Amino acid sequence: MLGVVQNGPQIAADRYTYHAAPALAILVAAGFLLLPRPRALISIAGLALVLVLLGVLCWRQTDYWHGPESLWSRVLQEDNTSAMAQSAMANVRYQQDRVAEGIAFSQQAVALAPDYAEAHNGLGVGYVRAGRVPQAIDEYRRALELKPNYDEAENNLGIAMAAAGALDSAIVHYRRALDENPDNASAEINWGNALVRQDRPGESIPHYERALALQPNSADACLNWGVALAREGKYADAVKQFEAALSIDPGNAEARTYLDRATRLMQGTPPRT
Asked: Which pTM does this prediction carry?
């Protein structure tokens, strides 16, 4: 727990420090009790100073854990050869919609660890976001070669196939993702979306239902379920799903637009163009 023996990819693990701290505290307390009283009084001042110093250092250390960006920036500051940190930082950039920077981090992760499946998967995510779908497909396939039961890569490969217009192939990969991990709500949603694009909205609805059973707060599942219902002309039911999506994610502009359209169609009013 002190990090003398390496037990993972981390350089050091802050989360383990509390395991070692009680034993060290007991040793210090025992030493304190053995001191003669005059020295004990002097040691109290020294101990207080040490505690203040440790408190300041602890406060400083918690800043690194403020969020993913500060954490992985710190890791890369300490060791920029960490493929895990490079890949994690890429994910942070993708979430910030800084795709070009994310791709650069993912490429660095792959260069550092060519056999790291998660790095190839992350690079595929970046390529899809950048519209480089064929390259993304290659990266996802490489990730699956390295880690055949990688459900996230299967799901992402399905997304890339759908982006390329190969909806039947996309569904195959969504099915494989769910075979590996039946709790993959994203694969359920994506499978449903592929069916809607194939003009099979009725078949898509069970997938959205399962996704919501897995993730009750999935605005995505509600939104796409509403789209499927609207495609079937069930505007009142679609309105309920769009409202559910907005209750989960009030800032979802797409859900608000679809809600307006479905409401107008339900009322017999032409939707706004």
From this structure: 0.82
- Could you say which of 118, 137, 168 is where a domain stops? 168
CA angle 87, 89, 90 (to 5 degrees): 65
142-200 pLDDT per residue, tens: 999 999 999 999 999 999 999 999 999 999 999 999 999 999 999 999 999 999 999 99
Domain CATH for 125? 1.25.40.10
Residue 92 belongs to domain spanning: 53-168
CA torsion sign for 221, 223, 228, 234 is positive
Q: How many CB atoms lie under 10 A from the CB of residue 41?
A: 10
**What sign has the CA pseudo-torsion 64, 68, 69, 74?**
positive
The type of residue at 42 is: I
How far, in Å, CA of 136 to CA of 122, rounded?
9
